[in-house]
């Protein structure tokens, strides 16, 4: 009887993820740990423009390659060539504070995602990151805040939204206490949303 190649045993290519980060890298570490259990994708590279970013130490500890670049290297196309050489299939921005150049966005298309610590389209744009966002949300007396995971284009925080989760803002909240609950939402949802989207587009 000839061997029947069943649908569930189809070969899936291992897809390579590159993470851009500028700071601590807690979301990057969460993604690395999540995808270490995946048979579809893995984090292959951490990139940062900040030579003092703690994400570099996290990458070293987790045995993930890291690369520090200058903004000139990013704009010149050198980083795009590196991504191609390393056969990167998907890009995640996890606390990366710069715009990606148009050639990277065009090359990867809808295979670049970002997480933002507010409910876009409110509280997005240049300069709206980290504690700046939480201060603005509280100052505006919002009832809710949350996270937005979205596709990246050539403008800050304007790509199509893939997922949002929200939390209440308490009367006693400070930017620091709100940040803790936003981080909890990021840790809970970001890896799962990225994985689901990768399974859809790759």
Briefly characterize the structure.
The chain has 202 residues and is α/β, with parallel strands linked by helices. The chain has helices at 26-35, 55-61, 71-76, 78-85, 102-108, 130-139, 175-201; strands at 15-20, 41-48, 65-68, 90-93, 112-116, 144-151, 161-168. Helix 1 packs parallel to helix 7 (175-201) and helix 6 (130-139) packs across helix 7.
Describe the structure.
The chain has a single domain (13-201), classed as Formyl transferase, N-terminal domain (Rossmann fold), CATH 3.40.50. A 7-stranded mixed sheet has the order 3-2-1-4-5-6-7, with helices on one face. Residues 1-9 have low confidence and may be disordered. With 202 residues, the protein is an alpha/beta fold. It has 7 helices and 7 strands.
Number of strands: 7
CA radius of gyration is: 18 Å
CATH superfamily: Formyl transferase, N-terminal domain
Please state the average pLDDT score. Answer: 94
User: What is the highest CATH level, the class?
Assistant: Alpha Beta
User: Any guess at the CATH architecture?
Assistant: 3-Layer(aba) Sandwich
Uncertain runs with pLDDT below 50, 5 residues or more? 1-9
Secondary structure tally, helices: 7
- Percentage of residues in helical conformation: 25-40%
Global structural class: alpha/beta
What fraction strand? 15-25%
User: Biggest sheet: strands side by side, in what order?
Assistant: 3-2-1-4-5-6-7
Keywords:
202 residues; alpha/beta; Rossmann fold; 7-stranded mixed beta sheet; 7 helices; 7 strands; 37% helix; 21% strand; globular; disordered N terminus
